[in-house]
Amino acid sequence: MNWKKGLTLFMAVGLAAGVLAGCGSDTASDKKVITFGAETTYPPFEFAEDNTYKGFDVDLSNALAKEMGYESKFVSLPFDGLIPALQSKQIDAIASGLVVTKEREAKVNFTAPYYHVKLVMVVRQDTNNVNGEADIAGKTVGAQIGTTGAMLAQEKPGTTVKEFDAITTMLQDLEAGNIQIAMLDEPVAKYYIQKLNMKDLKIVPVGLQDHTVAIAVRKDDKELLDKMNAAFEKLKANGEYDKLQQKWFGDIQ
């Protein structure tokens, strides 16, 4: 079985289990379970490796659940399917590098922010005509479906926006010359270039937007929101949050 088929099977099994889970009693352990949804091709926030979900969001969510006295499960979903899955109660929370926007705040409640990121442009090493936001106009731009990067690119005149489910596919298209710019959050761009050895790509040094990232819960689930915020304060106070930040972002320069 090649890695793509294996990952697809793993994600499908995770989805099937997660849809049935919900936030309730786990019959095996008689403990409450929180089902988190994430788009799991977004390292270092969340990704699948060795049949396991890993990343900053995964570790943070597990730590929050433990602090609250819950167990946690992760379900992999397309990014643009996360909020609908939350609203339909297939999952209990979204922990997927989700940027807080006014449009999303109308649909979900956000916890206190747990990370701040900068939206950046990634181009090929031989690109010299992309130096700032104004240079997006007239280009063929890649972005993940439903992201703030896609929204920004769509505002620029003459721009062709190609939306992707997976970051890897988008960056491969950039390497192949099928798009001219890829829009990504800076830690994710650095991870792909440095950790996954995409040395033909570079980050444009001028950032585009500063974003606040938080966990999303349903509008009517104030109890879970309050519990998560209280647990997050404890993780910051006891140093666990700082340890997780160092683990996942400390060696990305």
How do the SSEs run, as a string of H and E?
HEEEEEHEHEHEEEHEHEHEEEHH
**N→C terminal distance:** 35 Å
Structural class: alpha/beta
**Secondary structure: helix percent:** 25-40%
CATH homology-level superfamily of the largest domain:
Periplasmic binding protein-like II
CATH-defined topology of the largest domain:
D-Maltodextrin-Binding Protein, domain 2
List the uncertain runs.
1-22, 25-29
* Name of the CATH first level of the largest domain: Alpha Beta
Tell the overall outline: globular
Give me the count of strands: 15
Q: Report the sheet with the most strands, covering strand number, pairing sense and barrel closure.
A: 6 strands, mixed
Measured by DSSP, the beta-strand proportion falls in: 15-25%
Oligomer: single chain
The residue-averaged pLDDT reads: 87
The count of domains is: 2
Which CATH architecture of the largest domain?
3-Layer(aba) Sandwich
Please, how many helices? 9
